[in-house]
């Protein structure tokens, strides 16, 4: 049998205070939020910047600077050959050629490493430039020596076969072509190795 409805006593006709839901037990979870406030959000660890990091170094500048150094070293070598070719033996020619390839590669590699830093493309371009410098240094020396005999001799050489300087570098059909290849290998190895060594210390 239901009881008759009875009005609840509320002095002053105040609004009833809403009851808060029971909070978690003592020692568990975060404290309950006050009425009208949002509960605190959990903190997440800071994330690093998205995307690949920008790599340092200027491969284009390294290429052009290495090319300029190679041209200068090659011209110096050609000038030395031109000034001393009458007193050079065959072995001296080979030694100067390999030594020039080493110096050319070292100069190119040092500059490429300084400017290109750790860029692999810059190191590869430096090795190629050094090999070209070793080759053209020898062929330019042949041209200078031919011009020493007069412009008529130079003109005859160009009319007969413009590839005579390149054939002289290859040994003119003799057995000195391994020395020619050795110079290219030395130039490339010096440029690549020194560029990698110097570029590794750059940031």
What descriptive keywords fit this protein?
203 residues; mainly alpha; elongated
- Class from secondary-structure proportions: mainly alpha
Distance between the termini: 90 Å
- Strand % is under 5%
The general outline is elongated
Give me the strand/helix succession: HHHHHH
| Mean pLDDT, all residues | 82
Please report the total strand number as a whole number: 0
Low-confidence stretches: none
Quaternary form? single chain
Q: Note the total helix count.
A: 6
User: Fraction of residues in helices?
Assistant: 55-70%
Describe the main β-sheet briefly. Answer: none
Rg, Å, rounded: 40 Å
Topology:
Elements: H1 59-84, H2 90-116, H3 120-148, H4 151-160, H5 164-170, H6 177-200
Helix pairs in contact: 1-2, 1-3, 2-3, 2-6, 3-4, 3-5, 3-6
What's a quick, concise take on this entry?
Residues 32-43 have a biased composition (Pro residues). This protein has 203 residues and is mainly alpha-helical.
Q: How would you characterize the overall build of this protein?
A:
The protein has six helices and no strands. The chain is mostly helical. The radius of gyration is 40 Å and the shape is elongated.
């Amino acid at each position: 049998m239901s009881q008759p409805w009875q009005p609840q006593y509320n002095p002053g006709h105040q609004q009833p205070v809403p009851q808060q839901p029971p909070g978690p037990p003592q020692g568990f979870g975060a404290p309950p939020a006050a009425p009208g406030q949002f509960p605190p959000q959990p903190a997440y660890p800071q994330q690093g910047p998205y995307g690949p990091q920008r790599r340092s170094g200027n491969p284009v500048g390294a290429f052009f600077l290495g090319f300029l150094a190679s041209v200068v070293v090659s011209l110096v070598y050609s000038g030395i050959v031109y000034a001393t070719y009458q007193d050079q033996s065959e072995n001296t020619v080979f030694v100067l050629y390999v030594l020039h390839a080493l110096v050319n590669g070292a100069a190119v590699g040092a500059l490429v490493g300084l400017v290109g830093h750790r860029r692999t493309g810059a190191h590869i371009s430096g090795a190629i430039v050094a090999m070209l410098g070793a080759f053209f240094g020898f062929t330019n020396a042949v041209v200078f020596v031919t011009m020493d005999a007069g412009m008529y001799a130079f003109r005859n050489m160009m009319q007969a076969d413009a590839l005579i300087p390149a054939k002289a570098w290859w040994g003119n059909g003799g057995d000195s072509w391994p020395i020619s290849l050795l110079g290219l290998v030395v130039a490339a190895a010096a440029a690549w190795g020194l560029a990698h060594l110097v570029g590794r210390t750059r940031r």
